[in-house]
Task: structure prediction
Amino acid sequence: MSEIIPVGLGERSYEIHVGSGLVAKAGVLLKPFASGIVAVVSDTNVAKLHLDRFCAALRAAQIDARPITMPSGESTKSFAGLEQLSSALLNTGVDRGGLIVALGGGVVGDLTGLAAGLLKRGIDFAQVPTTLLAQVDSSVGGKTGINSRQGKNLVGAFHQPVLVMADTALLDTLPKREFRAGYAEVAKFGLLGDAAFFAWLEKNWPDVFAGGPAREHAIAVCCRGKAAIVARDERETGERALLNLGHTFGHAIEAGCGFSDRLLHGEAVALGMALAFEFSARKGLIGAPEAARAANHLAAVGLPTHLKDVPGGTPGADALMDLIAQDKKVRRGTLTFILVRDIGRAFVENNVDAAEVRAFLSDKLAER
Ligand code: NAD
Ligand code: ZN
Result:
């Protein structure tokens, strides 16, 4: 069974296919987009598990598939990684008649998408996301990029894929911790705009973790949600910013941990969302029980929801504020945050007093 979700972006429109076992059909699905060489970019972990099978599926459809394997990990999303990948792609001979496929998590997707957008002034690319985070979030919407010394994702471009193929069976090999981290972004879709989905997750999350129809359903709901937001606001001039729920606090904490294994992106987002709900409660925007309900679900699946949950601790309030300021524009002491009026009712608040955020963080850090 597979579901097809259209992303309506005029001449840049494309489909997201969600289903178990799609890799076997990769040749048929990608054939219409591949009249020349097809370069398949993966990372060392994914390559070991899935690259041969994926390329074999392409070759079965008479596609000239050329595999490329990059080192795994966030540090690959760098200028050095971009140079290495560009060179490898050019060596395959792939050109504007061909296709570049990102077979991997968000790191491979973001880096490959950027390289595809730049090489020969833009080569088509397809996303075959292999992590839960990539299937529900990073593979959809066309944001590509690398990190620089100044921060994460600061060098990038919009380059929409021609197809997204989310094979939910690929997630069976994903380490549990990575799956759980990706689940934070799944919960995010409920928390920001879909209270009924959040309630469904509260009941059904064990089945989402176990795999099968519940997992497919959850991924399809998230893709539909993201596709709708992206179709209305491709370039993030408004509503798309809601997808950053939990990310302002989250990015600062992630950066404070040096983007290390101590805290994965999704774990930082879970903690960031718990803080965004609590901060909203403190401002009287949402009731304390609703804020607690959001955090309780994240904690129930094993995600961090308190600053003290971060192994090895976090930097202090001033350092976190510096990191928030680096990440966001601070205008006259005010910050932009995604806040909430209820579960499923997030909104963009442009006038958050930085001093109030600092006091909140300081209180949170003092908690035992
Ligand atoms: P990742 O790509 O590093 O993957 C996580 C780990 O899982 C890696 O070690 C990888 O090798 C391994 N892996 C991947 N698929 C596997 C599989 N099927 N089986 C076994 N191991 C597998 O990280 P991620 O969490 O997928 O993505 C994080 C990145 O995504 C960040 O750089 C973040 O900035 C970016 N992101 C981008 C967007 C966007 O809109 N472009 C949105 C959200 C996040
Ligand atoms: Zn995220």
User: Anything to note?
Assistant: The mean pLDDT is 95.
